[in-house]
Structures are given as C-alpha cells and as structure tokens.
Design a protein that fits this description.
Strand order of the largest sheet: 6-2-1-7-8-10-9-11
Strand content: 5-15%
Largest sheet: 8 strands, mixed
Bound molecules: S-adenosylmethionine
CATH architecture of the largest domain: 3-Layer(aba) Sandwich
CATH class of the largest domain: Alpha Beta
Length: 491
C-alpha cells in the first residue's frame, strides 16, 4: 500500500499484511478496510495468533497460511453458466473453429483459471458433453483457495449456484439429496482440479497440465490484481493458449490487449482474446479490433428520459463553443470503426465541446485506461454540467477497481442527471462490491423503476443501444439476487 494512507485501518499491522499480500499474490489493496480487517482477524484467529509480527512471519514461511488469508480477501462468488453469452461463444465459435483446424480427433483443452467452487469448469464440461465431446475433452480448473477447491471436488450445490438464467442445463446432471444437489460422476470425472496461484511465475507448465489451451476462462479474477500482476498474468495466459486458442475474461475485468500479442475480437457483449494460428483463416470470421475495448461503442444520442433542471454552472466555466457537426461525426465514425487513435485525434481537437470530449475519452479508454481517467477528470472540470463525462469516469474507475472514487463520480453523474438509469445501475454494482448491499438494492430498484416507467422499446440514455424493457429486467434480476442472498444469510 506504499504507506500513503492509513485511513480506516485500526492498526499498522493490517497494512503490513496487505502489503505482503500485494507482493506475494499481486492483490490490489482492498477497497473496504473494515471487511478486510474482519477477514484478517478471522485468518489470524484460525492461525491461533493475535500479534502481527508473529503472523507476518508465519505468512512468509507457510504458503498454506497465505492461501487461507487470500480466501478472506477475495470473493468466491460464482454460479453455473454465469454469463451465458460466453458459453454460446464457445459453442458457436470456438468449437467449430477448433474442429476445423485440428480435426475431429482433437481433444479439446479448456481451463477455468480462478474456478472458485467449480460451477464454471463444470458448466464448461457440460457444454462439451452437450456438444458431443464426451471422450475428447480435458478440462482443467485451478484456484488459490484450497477451501474452494475442496468444495468443487465434493461437488454438492444449493439452489444459489443455480440462479443463472441458463443453469437449467445443469439439471440433467444434478441429483437432489436432501436440500442440496450432487453433481453426476460423469461430469465430475471430466474436470481436473488443482491449486495454482496465478500471481506465481510457475505456469504455463506441462507438469501442471497448463499449456496448449483451446479456450481459457479467466473471469472475475483479474479484478483483484494490481497492474504489474495483471501484465504478467496476461503474458502467461497468452503463453498458455494453443495457436488459435481463445481467452474469455469477465465483464468487469481489466483489458489485456496491450500486455500480450493477443488479437482482440469485439463481440456484441465484449472482448474475446485470441492467439492467432499462423495463416489462420478463422480470423476473418470475427470482427477484429487492434487494441482492447473496455468501453462499449458510442451509444446513439438519446435524450435522458426525464428532464431535470441542471445546477447553476460555475462562474468560471468556459462558454460553450460548439464543435462543427462534421468534426464530431468524423470522430464518432472513427470510434465506431475501432480507429481509436484517429478518434482521439479528431475529438481531442475540440476540448471546448463536452460531447467531443466524451468521444475522446471512450477512444482513449481503449488505448490506456489510466490516461482516459485523467482526461475524463480534466474534461469534467471544464464541463461541470456534463453528466456523461462523470458517468464515463465512474465506469473507468470501476474497471480499475477504484471503487470509492468510482462511487463519487457515479453520484456526481446522478446529481447532474438524476434520471440516468444506467448510472443508478452502475452505482448498484459499485455499492455491492463495496459491501453496501442496502445502498446497492436501492440503486438497482431506482434503475428498475426508471426503466419500467418507459415504453419497453425506448432506447435508454447512454445505454449503448439498450432498451428500457431489457434494462428494467437486468436491474430487477440484480435486486432480486441481493434480496435472495439476504434471505439465505438470515436462514
Ligand atoms: C469471483 S471468483 C470467480 C469464479 C469464476 N471464475 C466466475 O467468474 O464465476 C474469484 C476467484 O478467484 C480466486 N483467486 C483470487 N486470487 C487468485 C490468485 N492469485 N490465483 C488464483 N486464483 C485466485 C479466488 O479464490 C476466487 O475463487
């Protein structure tokens, strides 16, 4: 934590523990000190130690103790067929592509990196079974949490693991025993679980079976890592792919395209990373963009659904000088075509125009997320009434895991534009990750109500083409998930 902030920490010993975890496991400083301190307290109690020097010495010496602590500082949240679009991509793009290149006898190699309690690799195994790869699959699954790996191997699950919209695909392979389901042995036998700390430089490795992967799922793990670990892990993930292999990360994970020679493929739900095979014709079947794209393409300009009276501008705000429509249109076209540098060049020539600034920020986000945050913050100062800039700033900060700052920017966007449903939705995600479930529920509820009050086909402001009806459903699902989780905790 480089000693710059002790705010919120009860004892410097906690900071020493966090620093050690950053060095050994590459984790970012926790965004919520209270929760981290509770976790450290629990881990110290399990270790039978109450003073920090002794605990730190044990952490240095005993890898199992570090693992035990990591479980407290990361979240094992997962469920079957989470993000079904990722599995659809495997079904419709990856498998036909592998078949075509490697022939029907090829054993498909898949890896769930950061598998938590196993729902993700078992979903992959079921997908491969469904597609007829019964004897022609090798599914590897690794995690740093030995407790999670043990749960994965026992493979007994509750309804909570089946909360995803496509979890029904697991039902044929689940046997109800009391209140829980046991996974069929034929699926269990397909997945090989192992301990692996992704921050360690011990992979790819033939000995560990981590090599030559046709598809890697590394979802919702990279969010915990600091920048240097993300870079190193990205390079190792690339090296672990077979030629022609694909890597799928989570929707909130940082983008990796600049850290390794991936080809980045833009789908309508996000980025897929590809290690092109020499002379690979499959490249032509995917829309491809040069660098990663953490922000979605520019949405159609839609006025916010409810008009609000903006606050009085600061007296120092520069008078607006409109950009020529042609210049802005050119910048938008470059952005939509994935020509980020050109979009930054064109839009960046008009710092006096908030819309152009937003285009520049979106494009820059694809090249350098930190530079985009800085530019966005500067632009927001020049354009204090531009809710979009605050919204983008919050989105970028969320992507970087800087949650308190992201929350502040989201609230500023909502202060400027209280009816901005997408900002309420994002605030819900931020607050949930900060552990404020009450606030998160409230934010999801507001997003749901705002969208439900519109005709379902209405395009939502800044919603990247999202319709009000669908966004209302998404917000409702998020709220219901939180409510269900609260009920489960009460039981
Ligand atoms: C939120 S879960 C993601 C589970 C699954 N990939 C998904 O998206 O549903 C994050 C997992 O990453 C694991 N993890 C955190 N740091 C790790 C590390 N350094 N190496 C390997 N796994 C790690 C945690 O133990 C946890 O099980």
């Amino acid at each position: 934590m480089s000693g710059d902030s002790t705010q919120g920490w009860r004892h410097p010993g906690y900071l020493a523990v966090i620093d050690l975890v950053a060095v050994r496991a590459g984790l970012l400083p926790p965004s919520c000190p209270a929760a981290a301190m509770e976790g450290i307290d629990r881990a110290m109690a399990r270790a039978g130690l109450s003073d920090f020097p002794a605990y730190l010495a044990q952490l240095e010496a005993d890898i199992a103790m570090l693992d035990d602590l990591l479980v407290e500082l990361t979240i094992g949240e997962t469920y079957f067929f989470r993000n079904p679009e990722h599995f659809q991509f495997v079904r419709h793009q990856v498998l036909p592509d592998v078949q075509r290149r490697r022939g029907p006898a090829h054993v498909v190699r898949a890896w769930s990196a950061g598998c938590a309690s196993g729902e993700e690799p078992y979903s992959l195994a079921v997908l491969l079974l469904e597609e007829g790869y019964g004897e022609k699959m090798e599914v590897r699954a690794t995690d740093v949490s030995r407790a999670a790996l043990a749960r994965a191997q026992v493979a007994r699950y509750g309804e909570w693991s089946l909360r995803g919209t496509e979890a029904g695909r697991m039902r044929p392979f689940l046997h109800l025993e009391g209140k829980r389901y046991t996974l069929d042995a034929q699926v269990r036998a397909r997945v090989h679980f192992d301990y692996l700390n992704l921050a360690d430089d011990t992979w790819p490795s033939q000995a560990h079976g981590i090599w030559g992967m046709d598809v890697i799922f590394c979802r919702n793990v990279l969010i915990y890592f600091n920048r240097s670990t993300i870079e190193a892990v990205a390079r190792r993930l690339h090296a672990s792919l077979a030629d022609g292999g694909f890597l799928i990360t989570g929707p909130s994970d940082p983008t990796l395209g600049t850290y390794a020679p991936f080809e980045t493929l833009l789908t309508d739900w996000g980025i897929v990373y590809h290690r092109p095979a020499a002379g690979d014709a499959s490249r032509r079947s995917f829309p491809s963009v040069p660098p990663p794209a953490p922000l979605p393409p520019l949405p159609p300009r839609v006025p916010p659904p409810v008009a609000v009276t903006p606050p009085v501008p600061a007296a120092t705000a520069p008078p607006p000088k409109p950009t020529t429509p042609a210049a802005l249109a050119g910048a938008r076209r470059a952005l939509e075509a994935g020509d980020w540098r050109e979009a930054v060049r064109l839009a960046g020539a008009h710092p006096e125009d908030a819309e152009a600034e937003a285009v520049a920020v979106r494009a820059l986000a694809n090249l350098d997320a930190l530079a985009a945050v800085r530019r966005c913050a500067e632009a927001a100062l020049r354009h204090p009434l531009a809710a979009e800039l605050r919204y983008l700033e919050a989105l970028l900060l969320l992507g970087l895991g800087r949650l308190p700052e992201s929350e502040r920017a989201a609230r500023q966007a909502l202060y400027l534009e209280p009816s901005l449903a997408v900002a309420h939705l994002m605030l819900g995600h931020i607050l949930r990750r900060l552990g404020d479930t009450t606030g998160a529920r409230r934010a999801f509820h507001t997003a749901e109500s705002l969208c439900a009050s519109l005709p379902p086909e209405t395009l939502v402001a800044l919603g990247d083409g999202e319709r009000a009806g669908h966004l209302a459903e998404v917000a409702r699902a998020e709220r219901t998930r939180l409510e269900k989780a609260r009920e489960e905790v009460r039981e």
